[in-house]
Amino acid sequence: FAPFAAFCSFQDQTSPNPGSTPPIPRGIVAAAVASVFALRLEEEGFAEAGVLVPVVFVVIVGTVLFYGLTAGPVARRLGISGGIPQGCLIVGAHAWALKIAEALHRAEIPVLLVDSNWTNSNLARMAGLPTVRGNILSESLPDELPLDGIGKLLALTGNDEVNSLAALHFSEVFGKQEVYQLPAAAPGEKGSEEVLPAGLRGRLLFGAEQTYASLSRRFAGEAVIKVTSLSEEFDLDAYRSLYGESAVLLFVLEGKALSVSVAGERL
Length: 267
Prior knowledge:
Layout: H1 2-8, H2 28-43, H3 52-78, E1 87-91, H4 95-106, E2 111-115, H5 118-126, E3 131-133, H6 141-144, E4 150-155, H7 160-174, E5 179-181, E6 203-204, H8 212-220, H9 236-243, E7 251-254, E8 257-260
Parallel strand pairs: 1-2, 1-4, 2-3, 4-5, 5-6
Antiparallel strand pairs: 7-8
């Protein structure tokens, strides 16, 4: 009975949605039941009943060690290991955010767009991109998003407050290093606001001069999203000599690992 109870209690209790019921410690059911059985058996006169609890705990610890040490290698061997999620939750599905999402999607990076605007979300769906229409700041929406394969937040709206609040919320889901936001405008520009401290916002995207306003102006002109493969024949220096300062680095993809360009940091 003891091994069976321990095995049953090892089912994955992890909650699929952030903010919902926390996971139950594995083995707690087996340990509790074994304690009750041991006491009852001692009352019935079984002299060795006290051995039951230690045996159950040995089974619990042993199975934790066994599955913990073997699950990763076995999953990798079978090709079912998900690894660190590289997908992007993109807040804002306006025209050029949609172009960024399409480029990531073509590179086989999972994306999920969220926008409260019906037209924007409908255009994203027509482009074949996973999209949720709703307010990212609503109390219930974040916990209902399908975040399988998603590990980063890109807040691309023209509202600094929305971007910052979304970054603050999802820093608890993805971690502080994986939440990014685009300033609405540069300091001194129309629509700019006081830059919030780093602890109250996400990491600033794409470069010191890149803002929602500046990218909107560029896309209103002739700016396009391009995906360029680097090689020994055409390396980063060759890329820079060809495009100069006109190109704005957005992401770097090495294999399936996606790195996001951040203002003030060198990739």
